[in-house]
Amino acid sequence: MASALAPSRKSYKKSLTRALDRYVSHLSGRLSVSVRDLSSGLSYAYHPGLRTATASIVKVDILVTLLLRAQRRHRGLTAGEKRLAARAIKVSDNAAASALWRAIGGASGLAAANRKLGLRDTAPGPGGAWGATTTTATDQVRLMTALTSAKSPLSARNRRYVLRLMSDVTRAQSWGVSAAGRKGVALKNGWLPRPRDGGRWTVNSIGRVRSRGHTYLIAVISDRHRSMGVGVKAVETVAKVVTKALAKAS
Predict the structure, then answer these.
(1) In whole angstroms, how far apart are CA 144 and each of 2, 217, 227?
(2) C-alpha torsion sign, points 141, 69, 130, 191
(3) Residue 121, exposed/middle/buried by CB under 10 A (0-12, 13-18, 19+)?
(4) pLDDT digits (tens, 9 = 90+) for 76-119
(5) For strand 134-135 and strand 183-194, is the pairing parallel, antiparallel, or unpaired?
(6) Mean pLDDT, to the nearest integer, of 111-130?
């Protein structure tokens, strides 16, 4: 049985890459995706070298950093920290994220936590510009792995806490990788028009989704879109395409 499955497991990456090449060729922007199927063990990455600004997806990384610091001090989050965390993740409040950024020591605090988390290609934004942090889709799946794996430096309680917040994102911000599966969704999105790209949009989405017996960790990052709507559509389309391909290959 294993040998019979091997050809399809090897060939799905080539056919999936061709399909994504065709789709992306019609976009004005750039796009990368990384996905891991926790149920089958299959994984896939498209344009893994692309780095974009995180925009608001970095709020998950900031919260994880805060929790790691609290763990080292053998304490839980304060009531005030919990209020800030909920606002930063559930409604993507920027003021709350800035307060948490200061609490973790800014760029140096994030960089130290990311070394512990194994994020190799994420560079914190300068000063207070946390949204200018740059990352890859592969690193964002590593971050999601830290929220779902027993081998994570984050405690089980803290992993559940972050995923619970990501599962309760306001409905208006529930687009993105959730297009790949509406069950067990825990996500965070980021969107930002960037002056350096002539006002074109960076649109990112990371999360965990479940569909037809599979659990996926997925990150789609993209930039240089003509509008936010175009970017959202691209992110959702690619999320559906890659998860369907992995489900078929498994």
Answers:
(1) 29, 6, 27
(2) positive
(3) middle
(4) 999 999 999 999 999 999 999 999 999 999 999 999 999 999 99
(5) unpaired
(6) 98
Neighbouring-strand partners of residue 35: 44, 218
Specify whether the CB–CB gap between 120 and 48 falls below 8 A: no
Q: Which residues pair with 225 in a beta bridge?
A: 201
Residues 6+ apart with CB under 8 A from 163: 147, 148, 186, 208
Q: Residue 105 — φ and ψ, nearest 5°?
A: 90, 20
Burial class of residue 109 in the structure, from the number of CB atoms within 10 Å of its CB (0-12 exposed, 13-18 middle, 19+ buried): buried
149 alpha-carbon distance from chain centroid: 15
**Cα–Cα–Cα angle for 21, 27, 29, rounded to 5 degrees:** 105
Q: Cα angle vertex 65, ends 82, 220, to 5°?
A: 100
In degrees to the nearest 10, what's the CA dihedral of 68, 74, 79, 83?
Answer: 10
Q: What percent of the chain has pLDDT over 70?
A: 96
**Digit-coded pLDDT (tens) for 5-14:** 444 556 889 9
Residue 140's nearest CA partner among 234, 57, 200, 216 is: 57
Residue 42 has what DSSP assignment? -
What three-state secondary structure class fits 51?
A: coil
The model's pTM:
0.95
Q: Is there a contact between 33 and 239 (Cβ–Cβ < 8 Å)?
A: yes
The pLDDT tens digits for 17-59 are 999 999 999 999 999 999 999 999 999 999 999 999 999 999 9
